[in-house]
């Protein structure tokens, strides 16, 4: 190791979900991180790893705690954090006009307020264990630069989307023309990349809000821009009945066909919700390599259909979880995990009742807690095109330390009740999954840097 290298080691228990339903527990392992924040070794602590790699400091994870990859929130409307927990009483299209667009317009006109909201949002996300987030912003380029700056400063891995909207919005909240919208999107890509200085932590994303607010010319231009600049795309797809009816009435097509026509259904794309997609549509999504952001809470409020999560997973579709602030009222991915399981079990309950009435082939539509943990970590990482979500050489050290048991008293931490603790196992982790909260989160690291918690870069 050269004099300028500063490798750090972390020794303790590690947990990951590398594939749906698979939970790996690594008891007493040592993970070594280089100065750039990437994992260079992950082996049993009893192995003589100093033959291969050295380190100049080591953090020992306390007994009763484990290290888990950070969560990925792949669908969140940053300006709507302004009114999180309010305004969930209307159908989607009315809700947008009454609440969402007004909040976004307010932040575009008040840069001081925008900075306050975005700073608080970033702080809340890392406290919740979110290490990567895919953000919808506003139409204002300067306001989106504020969003990018605040996410950079808090240290989170942020994919920042400047909205593109040239039609069918409130008269005071839309871009002046298609060409101005495209020019602003291209300008934001350049400015955001310069802000990040090629670190890959703050990334620009093209963001046509959804088909009703984008002309065909704008969608076509964004598809070309995505290919030319190799930039990711995010939008909403087949979310709510009133939105689908609008698209059919005004465009005479399904929105999935429109996105596909303009090259916005590619491996660079994340589409949110997708509750009205058929199994055939899901197969098409898989063929295109497009990812889906599953937002179970906001789907309950704004969609008349639950997302076909089991079918998507079984077809190999890339799926992660989103909080969908403020269509969902919680910025905590732990709640999204729990809600994803609950909704899937409701689907299974209805399926079971239907099966009892007929001779239909039995099928399982439910997911379990381990599958939801995969969606929150590795699944979200894959959806964002990241190499995180697992502990392996070459991956960034994006991790959170979770405390389950107090090593001094052997009692549970926070809301967890433990009646005896011997070692980390699935039962302990499931208890945390069901009842844990931010009192159990002791540290958060993004690409090797401490961004929240008690234990930093020791």
TrEMBL record:
GO CC, one annotated term: cytosol
Biological process according to GO: guanine metabolic process
CC cofactor: Zn(2+)
Superkingdom: Eukaryota
Recorded coiled-coil stretches: none
InterPro entries the UniProt entry points to: Amidohydro-rel, Metal-dep_hydrolase_composite, Metal_Hydrolase, Metallo-dep_hydrolases
SUPFAM superfamilies: Metallo-dependent hydrolases
Alphabetized Pfam families for the sequence: Amidohydro_1
Keyword Translocase applies: no
Assigned keywords, A-Z: Hydrolase, Metal-binding, Zinc
Gene Ontology molecular-function annotations: guanine deaminase activity; zinc ion binding
Annotated Amidohydrolase-related domain residues: 66-451
Protein name from the UniProt record: Amidohydrolase-related domain-containing protein
Organism (species): Agaricus bisporus var. burnettii (strain JB137-S8 / ATCC MYA-4627 / FGSC 10392) (White button mushroom)
């Amino acid at each position: 190791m050269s004099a300028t290298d500063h490798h750090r080691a972390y020794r303790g228990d590690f947990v990951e979900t590398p594939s749906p339903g698979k939970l790996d527990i690594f008891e007493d392992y040592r993970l070594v991180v280089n100065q750039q924040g990437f994992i260079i070794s992950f082996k049993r602590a009893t192995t003589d790893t100093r033959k291969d790699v050295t380190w100049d400091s080591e953090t020992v994870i306390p007994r009763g705690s484990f290290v888990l990859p950070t969560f990925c929130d792949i669908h969140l409307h940053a300006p709507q954090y302004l009114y999180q927990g309010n305004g969930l009483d209307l159908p989607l299209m009315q809700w947008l006009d009454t609440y969402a667009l007004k909040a976004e317009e307010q932040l575009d006109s008040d840069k001081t307020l925008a900075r306050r909201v975005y700073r608080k949002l970033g702080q809340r996300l890392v406290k919740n264990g979110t290490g990567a987030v895919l953000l919808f912003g506003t139409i204002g380029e300067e306001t989106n630069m504020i969003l990018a700056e605040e996410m950079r400063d808090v240290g989170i891995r942020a994919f920042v989307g400047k909205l593109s909207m040239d039609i069918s919005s409130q008269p005071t909240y839309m871009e002046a023309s298609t060409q101005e919208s495209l020019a602003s999107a291209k300008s934001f890509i350049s400015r955001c990349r310069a802000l990040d200085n090629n670190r890959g932590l703050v990334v620009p994303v093209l963001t046509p809000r959804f088909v009703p607010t984008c002309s065909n010319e704008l969608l076509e231009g964004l598809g070309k821009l995505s290919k030319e600049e190799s930039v990711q795309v995010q939008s909403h797809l087949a979310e709510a009945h009133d939105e689908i009816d609008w698209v059919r009435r005004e465009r005479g097509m399904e929105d999935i066909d429109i996105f596909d026509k303009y090259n916005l259904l590619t491996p660079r794309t994340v589409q949110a919700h997708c509750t009205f997609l058929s199994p055939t549509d899901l197969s098409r999504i898989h063929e295109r390599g497009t990812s889906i952001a599953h937002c179970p809470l906001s789907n309950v409020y704004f969609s008349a259909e639950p997302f076909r999560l089991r079918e998507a997973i079984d077809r190999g579709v890339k799926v992660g979880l989103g909080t969908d602030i403020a269509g969902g009222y919680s910025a905590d991915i732990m709640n999204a995990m729990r809600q994803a399981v609950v909704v899937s079990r409701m689907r299974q309950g209805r399926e079971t009742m239907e099966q009892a009435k007929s001779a239909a082939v039995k099928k399982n539509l439910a997911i379990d807690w381990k599958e939801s943990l995969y969606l929150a970590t590795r699944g979200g990482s894959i959806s964002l095109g990241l190499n995180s979500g697992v502990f392996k050489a070459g991956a960034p050290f994006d991790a959170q330390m979770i405390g389950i048991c107090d090593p001094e008293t052997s009692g549970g931490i926070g809301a967890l009740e433990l009646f005896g603790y011997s070692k980390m196992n699935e039962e302990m982790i499931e208890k945390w999954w069901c009842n844990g909260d931010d009192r159990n989160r002791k540290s958060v690291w993004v690409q090797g840097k401490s961004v929240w918690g008690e234990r930093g870069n020791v």
